[in-house]
């Protein structure tokens, strides 16, 4: 496990000053670079040692059979697993006669720095070989945000103390051997040599490999090209074989001399494009990268990030660790989504093979709300990707005997690939999560073209799903039975409150959009009768309520289930899913992750303040947070019900999920939803942002340790900056093309009008504690963030 404080606290960098081989795989995830199109794990340049070698291309996957002991009708037959593709980051070094390998000789100095503003990973090493020869190496790596098929590495090596012969081997390697699989269902399936060689080529100072997957029929081209600077006398040669290509540079360096190599790597992949087309595509990408040159690529990268941070930075004063973590989180969210462009945003981004590289509801519920207010173009493209898979979701609904679209619980290419119904397709709420992401995006951007082309149909087809999945009982109440809500420890139950409330909003949003776009809706077969049926279902939606306890059961009957025996559950038995049978988890009051509490966030408009406080306290006692998708939501609701210090604790957990490897599985990739959750915990928690309607609502209030929280939101053509202090808040607009632009928002219920010339400063009203003091199950309280002397 990563030691706490492995990385010194700094505002804009994640720095490693000591190489700990026991947590190499974890640091490879933390230091992964990606632009949403290609992703490189933070493997050492020389490849060995490694935790998990990883180079990923968005949606480049292999099919594998899903074996069932007892198959049932409608079970998916094949799974999809992200492929570790040709590794272009390998640069090996021979120092006189010895390979540079940190496990031998002496690592005199080691540092790796992820620079969140430069968008680079830099490594500085001084190494003494077993024979006593010392070299200094400095490598800098980037995955370009501006040239999406390109990664580049600058590699410098110099001798210390005396002349030496250096041989640098820069490689492209396909079908790397991967470590074997553990029994944890959250890790990926291991594919044996998934790539079949099709073509290899040596040209200029580099080479090209083209491969194809056997079953999914995807073709991949990878090309590398080099610029080499150093002493006049050097030998450079390239060779290529089926699964590897290698450029070798040989020279003798005297002290004071340096060998500098810039390696450009480009990837292209397709299910349709021919070999020559892909060859040309990567050739062109390399030409573009060389045209910019190393300095040009770095400058473009910095410009891109300057704009991103200018629009999206969150400043936190009073908790430097959280400050660093929230920027690290935003950086990974950006990396996951920036250039995904009509491809999915996976739960691990492109940082590791965890969950087989699949995208879940994590995207729409946790990642897209952040991107909606920071990089809305990425939201449009993620939802356009969902739309591009609509025909598969419609087919799936048909197989299940339903109407509309049943989007897959987990997928890479759009087909359902979950082999486990209760924590798979039964999570039908993903349909409403997608619909809500559409609603939020359109509301925040006013992008009517998107709404007409994509949004409307997504709303209509998901509404149709709800109408056919649910039913009116003899009293007219609308029920949605046999589904799994967000809490995967309560499965296949009736009337999950989260699902019902989200479906209700989905049905109404579809009816409203169909009215706005009458003609387009008519072309989709929507008539007045259908919209009336949606409105009826929404109006009659049944929401269970326990009158005796005055709380909402998260599913019908939940509050009368047997209690889980937390006192006799030893700490090492968490996560429970690895140590207890599902049947037992399903029939008791134990909650894996925020469910009813999540409903109180995204459908907060459906609960009173008193209900929120008593529900929150009830579910706190039963929620174990075995999913990383929980802490951020608990932070949001803790803040809303006035438990500010507890909210701060949960914020810390969401934000530090990967920097502290809290769930001990960062090795498989970072937890993108939890990292997005750090932003959500700050902005929706302490900023109190709610976007239930087209007037943004804020209820800012800080915990004792934070002196200041500043964040920005993009809203239509405007940029709103919210600057929260302990006793007052300033709302300011900037960057509008229209000098008389006005934004109406509410601050603790009071309507404010903010203009570009007139920032508005208002007091934070005194805190009114609204509910019982919450407690967590034994041993499951979050780590405290307030210091001793503070409350
Ligand atoms: C959670 C799901 C989540 C998945 C991927 C599971 O452990 O329970 O809600 O979608 O992980 O992050």
What do these coordinates show?
The protein is of the alpha+beta class and 791 residues long. The protein has a domain at 31-295: Distorted Sandwich (Beta-galactosidase, Chain A, domain 5), CATH 2.70.98. The strands form 8 sheets. A 9-stranded antiparallel β-sheet has the order 1-9-10-11-12-19-16-15-14. Strands 8-7-13-18-17 form a 5-stranded antiparallel β-sheet, with no helix packed on it. The chain has a 5-stranded antiparallel β-sheet with strand order 20-26-27-28-31. The chain is globular. The two termini are 30 Å apart. The model has no long low-confidence stretch (mean pLDDT 96). The chain binds beta-D-glucopyranose (BGC). Beta-D-glucopyranose binds at residues 347, 355, 360-362, 486, 488, 592-593, 627, 629, 673.
Strand order of the largest sheet: 1-9-10-11-12-19-16-15-14
Termini Cα gap: 30 Å
Helical stretch tally:
17
Strand content: 15-25%
Tell me the structural class.
alpha+beta
Shape: globular
Q: What is the quaternary state of this protein? A: single chain
CATH architectural designation of the domain at 31-295: Distorted Sandwich
Layout of secondary structure:
Elements (H helix, E strand, L loop, with lengths): L12 E4 L7 H7 L2 E2 L3 E3 L14 E3 L3 E5 L12 E5 L8 E5 L2 E2 L6 E10 L4 E9 L5 E10 L6 E11 L3 E10 L21 E8 L3 E8 L5 E11 L4 E7 L3 E10 L5 E12 L4 H38 L2 E3 L2 H18 L24 H13 L1 H13 L1 H10 L30 H16 L2 H22 L1 E2 L5 E2 L17 H20 L1 H6 L4 H12 L22 E2 L18 H5 L1 E2 L6 H7 L6 H12 L10 H10 L3 H13 L15 H15 L9 E3 L9 E8 L2 E8 L2 E7 L7 E6 L2 E6 L4 E4 L28
Parallel strand pairs: 23-24, 25-29
Antiparallel strand pairs: 1-9, 2-3, 3-4, 5-6, 7-8, 7-13, 9-10, 10-11, 11-12, 12-19, 13-18, 14-15, 15-16, 16-19, 17-18, 20-26, 21-22, 26-27, 27-28, 28-31, 29-30
Helix pairs in contact: 3-16, 3-17, 4-5, 4-7, 4-17, 5-7, 5-8, 7-8, 7-9, 8-9, 9-11, 9-13, 13-15, 15-16, 15-17, 16-17
This protein binds beta-D-glucopyranose.
Beta-D-glucopyranose binds next to loops.
């Amino acid at each position: 496990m990563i030691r706490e404080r492995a990385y010194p606290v700094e505002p804009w960098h994640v720095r490693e000053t000591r190489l700990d081989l026991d947590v190499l795989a974890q640091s490879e995830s933390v230091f992964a670079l990606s632009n949403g199109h290609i992703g490189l794990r933070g493997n050492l340049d020389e490849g060995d040692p490694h935790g998990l070698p990883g180079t990923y291309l968005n949606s480049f996957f292999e099919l594998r059979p899903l074996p069932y002991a007892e198959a049932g009708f409608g079970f998916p037959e094949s799974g999809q697993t992200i492929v570790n593709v040709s590794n272009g980051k390998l640069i090996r070094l021979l120092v006189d006669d010895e390979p540079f390998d940190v496990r031998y000789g002496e690592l005199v100095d080691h540092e790796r720095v992820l620079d969140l503003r430069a968008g680079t990973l830099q490594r500085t090493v001084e190494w003494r070989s077993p024979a006593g020869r010392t070299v200094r190496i400095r490598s800098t790596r980037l995955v370009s945000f501006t040239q999406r098929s390109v990664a580049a590495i600058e590699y410098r090596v110099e001798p210390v103390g005396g002349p030496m012969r250096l041989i640098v081997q820069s490689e492209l390697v396909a079908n790397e051997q991967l470590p074997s699989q553990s029994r944890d269902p959250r890790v990926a399936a291991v594919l044996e040599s998934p790539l079949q060689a099709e073509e290899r080529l040596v040209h200029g100072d580099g080479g090209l490999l083209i491969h194809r997957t056997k079953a999914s029929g995807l073709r991949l081209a990878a090309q590398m090209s080099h610029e080499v600077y150093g002493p006049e006398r050097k030998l450079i040669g390239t060779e290529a074989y089926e699964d590897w290509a290698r450029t070798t540079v040989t020279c003798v360096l005297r002290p004071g001399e340096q060998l500098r190599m810039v390696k450009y790597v480009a990837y292209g992949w397709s299910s349709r494009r021919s070999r020559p087309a892909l060859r040309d595509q990567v050739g062109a990408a390399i030409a573009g990268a060389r045209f910019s040159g190393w300095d040009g690529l770095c400058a473009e990268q910095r410009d891109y990030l300057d704009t991103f941070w200018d629009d999206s930075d969150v400043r936190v004063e009073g908790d430097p660790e959280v400050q660093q973590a929230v920027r690290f989180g935003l950086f990974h969210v950006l990396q996951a989504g920036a250039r995904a462009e009509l491809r999915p945003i996976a739960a691990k981004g492109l940082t590791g093979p965890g969950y087989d590289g699949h995208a879940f509801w994590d995207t729409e519920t946790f990642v897209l709300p952040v991107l909606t207010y920071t990089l809305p173009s990425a939201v449009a493209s993620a939802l356009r990707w969902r739309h591009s898979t609509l025909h598969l979701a419609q087919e799936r609904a048909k197989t299940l005997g339903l109407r509309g679209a049943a989007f897959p619980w987990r997928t890479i290419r759009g087909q359902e690939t979950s082999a486990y119904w209760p924590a798979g397709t039964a999570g039908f709420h993903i349909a409403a999560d997608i619909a809500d992401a559409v609603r939020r995006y359109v509301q925040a951007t006013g992008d009517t073209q998107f709404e007409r082309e994509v949004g409307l149909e997504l709303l209509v087809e998901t509404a149709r799903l709800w109408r056919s999945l649910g039913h009116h009982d003899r009293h007219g109440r609308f029920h949605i039975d046999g589904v799994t809500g967000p809490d995967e420890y309560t499965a296949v139950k009736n009337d999950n409150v989260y699902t019902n409330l989200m479906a209700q909003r989905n049905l109404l949003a579809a009816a409203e959009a169909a009215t706005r776009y009458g003609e387009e809706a008519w072309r989709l077969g929507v008539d007045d009768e259908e919209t009336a049926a949606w409105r009826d279902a929404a109006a009659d939606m049944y929401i269970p309520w326990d009158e005796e306890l005055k709380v909402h059961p998260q599913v019908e009957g939940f509050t009368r289930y047997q209690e889980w025996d937390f006192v006799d559950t030893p700490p090492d038995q968490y996560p429970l899913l690895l140590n207890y049978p599902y049947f037992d988890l399903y029939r008791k009051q134990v909650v894996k992750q925020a469910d009813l509490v999540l409903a109180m966030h995204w459908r907060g408009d459906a609960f009173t303040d008193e209900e929120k406080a008593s529900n929150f306290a009830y579910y706190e006692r039963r929620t174990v947070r075995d999913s990383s998708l929980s802490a951020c939501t608990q932070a949001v609701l803790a803040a809303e019900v006035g438990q500010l210090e507890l909210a701060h604790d949960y914020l810390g957990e969401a934000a530090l999920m990967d920097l502290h490897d809290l769930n001990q599985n960062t090795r498989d990739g970072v937890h993108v939803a939890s990292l997005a959750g750090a932003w959500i915990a700050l902005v929706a928690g302490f900023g109190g942002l709610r976007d239930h309607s087209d007037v943004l609502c804020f209820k800012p209030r800080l915990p004792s340790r934070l002196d200041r929280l500043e964040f920005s939101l993009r809203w239509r053509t405007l940029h709103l900056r919210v600057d929260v202090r302990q006793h007052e808040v300033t709302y300011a607009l900037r960057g509008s093309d229209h000098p008389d632009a006005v934004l109406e928002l509410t601050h603790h219920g009071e309507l404010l009008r903010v203009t570009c010339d007139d920032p508005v400063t208002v007091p934070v009203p005194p805190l009114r504690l609204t509910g019982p003091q919450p407690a967590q199950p034994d041993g499951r309280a979050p780590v405290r963030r307030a210091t001793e002397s503070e409350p």
